[in-house]
Amino acid sequence: MRWAQLTLVEDDPGKFDLQFWLDYFQRTRSDAVCLSAGGCVAYYPTNVPFHHRSAWLGERDVFGELVAGCRKLGMVVIARTDPHATYDDVQAAHPDWIAVDAAGKPRRHWASPEMWVTCGLGPYNFEFMTEVKREVMSRYRVDAIFINRWDGSGMCYCEYCRKNFRAASGHELPRTTDPHDAARRAYILWRQQRLFDLWRLWDAEVRKINPDSCVIPNTGGGATSALDMQRIGELAPTLMADRQARRGLSAPWVNGKNGKEYRATMGRKPIVGTFSVGVEEPYRWKDSVQSEAEIRLWVADGVANGLRPWFTKFSGVLHDERWLRPVEKIYQRYAGWEKYLRNEKPLARVGLVYSQQTAWFHGGKVEDHTLGWYQALIEARIPFEMVHDRLLDAAHLAPLKTLILPNITALSDSQCAQLRAFVESGGGLIATHETSLYDEWGAKRKDFGLAGLFGVTFKGRVEGPMQNSYLRLEADSATGERHPLLGGLEDAPRIINGVRRVEVEATRPFPSPPLTLIPSYPDLPMEKVYPRVLKTGLPQVYLREEGGGRIVYFPWDIDRTFWEVLAPDHFKLLRNAVVWATHEEPVVTVTGPGVLDVTVWQQKASLTIHLVNLTNPMMMKGPVRDLIPVSEQKVRLRMPEGAKPKQVRLLAAGKKVRSDRSGPYLNVTVPSILDHEVVAVDF
Ligand SMILES: [Zn+2]
To answer: How far is the CA of 98 from the centre of ligand 1 (A)?
Structure first.
């Protein structure tokens, strides 16, 4: 539940204070630890040829001493290895273990130029690193071996990679990143196959020695990650979600998003959220210390989304100790909440689909659409899950009422059939822009794969970028009333449009479209800025019902534009679309000021509602300076049938609170939230 990682640097043996770390693991109530064993540097007296012992190791076995100390504390112990770099003697003896660049030259390491970059897909990993793992496992019988940077460092053009790829695909290694290039597409698949083969080999070898162990390659993530998350979900008993901190313009909910992405294919398997105590920017200040508030918020959002925290520290000798006390406090807090963090299942009813095949084979900025939806769902305080596009079968979708497809362009016929079945059984579906306009290989279709569900046909053109275009808000021609999609926009005659739109034509009647197009008109000179056409009647949203399900299709890039512009009018449309499509009372409503990430979980003997307070002037670009409390929040929870709550507690406030029951709803007032509050309803 609480992980520690100590990654030693080569000169640590003899310098660092081993007992200090054991004490710290104990003070933080860490129950699992990852310790440096070997690969790049061996911290034990290895006998594997070319396995480089730390030059400071002497006669010691630093790894073994740490393992013994942690075992005394009752911790789960995993060994860390890193195979991505090696030395001159290795390069001289085994030049075929070294990565080769596109020009055919062996690659020096970019940060430590006296070293060499290794090939991830050849004998260095398949043979040498397998020996290292066998040795570590037979000597120490650790619970698992973690492998950092195991999948190569970019394209490798070594003799093995060229030969193996040619034999497997008939192609030469690609020299383009264009996913429509046949060799590139084959490479994306072949590389995955090699890495899954490597993973299986390593896993089988360590399990021969210790059947209760496994290997944990550092891998996985969202749409843009390189290895198929569906296969990873089948293969891995646990994984580390390695998103260590915010960088640049990232939102504070990115850690939680990572948790949701892993859980989409890992289900209930434990997922560990690796966080850094330092500044994670491209300049890689690896010995830096981040602000306490930023670390707290980052970890809180991970925990609220099902991640088990893992602090990672490089170097056993500390150059700046300011992180020690904050992390200790964070860990002690979550240790105290442990029985409420075991998470049987999330109770969210909305699913946001992500698609690796869209990122791999169609390409483009796929994340911008997803990030727009993610921000909108956070602002709307709607609990939601991420859903992997290769797990759209009825069993996986059963807990969900509504699916959102944020410009999921690449979908196969069978995936489209699964989505139709979901709607036919009463599910809501929201899709944007070019969703399903390409097949699973990124090849353009004549028409949307979901044309029937959307009720439109593709007219052959995607317009944009559009300047100065708008949407007219329309009332129903029969009743004079506006559609609930336009809720909160009662006084608006028009709002801004997005940036790109697909030209479509309705194939069914849409008698009163709530949004219609006002086409672009000049934005300069100012004298010419007047609409040439006031009313086109061309719908820019298609809403329909089928088989009990509700479908919303936006032909424009509302989600991507929202991520870029963050217009409140677009937010309202996104929120209202989810509410209308979902068409049921929400599991939880939280009313009050501020921006909260709201998640809701069923435990063995309780329900837990996490409220992570993201309200902060540094919300959209960290680091956070101070945590700023939000005032009173009214929480209304829809109770599962037959549930009889015994008591309601606020875990951060550390007290019981009064609750009112009205029908199926439980009402609780949370007076204030600093960073992370949990409403725990005990049964
Ligand atoms: Zn290679």
So the answer is: 7
